[in-house]
Amino acid sequence: MTVVGPSRKGMAFADRKDAGRRLAARLAPLRDDRPVVLALPRGGVPVAAEVARVLQAPFDVIVVRKLGLPFQPELGFGAIGEDGVRLLDAELVRRVGLTERDIARVEANERRELIRRVITYREGRAPIDIEGRTVVIVDDGLATGATARTAVRIAKARGARRIILAVPVAPSDTVKELQADVDQVVSLVTPPHFVAVGPWYGDFRQTSDGEVAALLRQNASSGVADPALAIDLDREVTIPIDGAELKGILQVPAGARGIVLFAHGNGSSRLSPRNLSVAQGFHARGLGTLLFDLLTPAEASDRRNVFDVELLGGRLLEATEWTCRQGEVGLLPRGYFGASTGAAAALWAAGSPGNTVRAVVSRGGRPDLAGDRLHLVRCPTLLIVGGADRDVLELNRVAATHLDCQCQLAVVPAATHLFEEPGALEEVARLSGAWFEKYLPASDVAVIAASRYSKRPDIRTDQADISTELGFHG
């Protein structure tokens, strides 16, 4: 750790570019380690761009959002990041009396903004693969370090070999606390009396979304960044079914090998933070997604509808037919991803006569609710259950014996029903993505579309090291 005294009036840096140059000089010895530079947007991006230039390193963002109290948004009770990562200040949550519903509402809004920023900044490029690499996480400064901790967790989940947190300025107590989370913390200035990051800069004007996207684009076009995908389709949609209009989010990357329709669980919707996070992982693997509301708000208010698997499964079938009418999207092979009661609907629909769905994944599902349709499912089916979700795990074990298809039961150790434990949801996304990659063969249209864009990056298909039970039938 290097300490630099402040200049006049407390300012140590002219602007973020100046701070980036000076930070890059400190990090120059890392060049031979072939690191990847990850910036915390927005302010960290101009700093990281200079670091990446000096280190001749690929450069990307790692997007994190603060979770602010509903009645005092500037005060954070936690943070979320890409890949479903979430950190909560349990003591603050308890002290102010936040309910699970309060947390879910804030998280859903911030998750939507997080995904919007990911799409805006990367312009469809897949995240740079950091597995086995040295990663330098850069911001323009730290205060409490909450967002940095979230970014570190994401980098660890993605397999970083070594993590260095580098900033121009941070309070000394925050630096000491973060040293336990990473391999090294580099801060050029560590003032004993710290108020905010801004006073340490002569020019601390806000960095815009456009500037972030432009800097990332410049790095990608320089040939330093890894090859990437391009977003071909991303829009809000309305699906007319049975006289109702169901809202959805359709996202299909260029060169997609298939499309996965999501069936959410009890009390959830197209805005489910967990499903949005899993969908984001699918996009990076070249899979399109459709997240949609199975019920209208009025229908959802009747709890009987929430557990009407035949109604929900029928809606999923209608949505499947709707995708078939969406131009080239309709030619992509289709899969279902169902959660909780939505998994029962997915299996019910998959067992419908004439359905051509190619693969199904159930996350914490209730396959028993699919009834007589369960034994009619013929497509490869992956059942993912948390090891601590004992009752549901037993239901899935029984269901696996009734499925007359290629079936795999994967148990994520210590995970509960909602997979809220650190790394649990990332395991779900990884296993599901690998399953769909294997069983959704690229169609002719996907191959033609892929040729219009730059070469896709290699996509990992290996599964994480988890406890897995296998049961094959048929």
Query: What share of the residues does DSSP label as strand, in percent?
Result: 15-25%
Q: What is the total tally of β strands?
A: 17
Tell me the overall shape.
elongated
Strand order of the largest sheet: 9-10-12-11-13-14-15-16-17
Cα-based radius of gyration, to the nearest Å: 23 Å
Report the mean per-residue pLDDT as an integer: 82
Number of helices: 15
> Poorly predicted ranges (pLDDT <50, ≥5 residues)?
1-10, 225-231, 443-474
By CATH, the topology of the largest domain is: Rossmann fold
| Name given to the CATH homologous superfamily of the largest domain | Alpha/Beta hydrolase fold, catalytic domain
Q: Structurally, how many domains make up the residues? A: 2
The main pleated sheet reads as: 9 strands, mixed
* CATH class descriptor name of the largest domain: Alpha Beta
Distance between the termini: 61 Å
Query: Which class best fits the helix and strand makeup?
Result: alpha/beta
How much helical structure, as a percent, in the residues? 25-40%
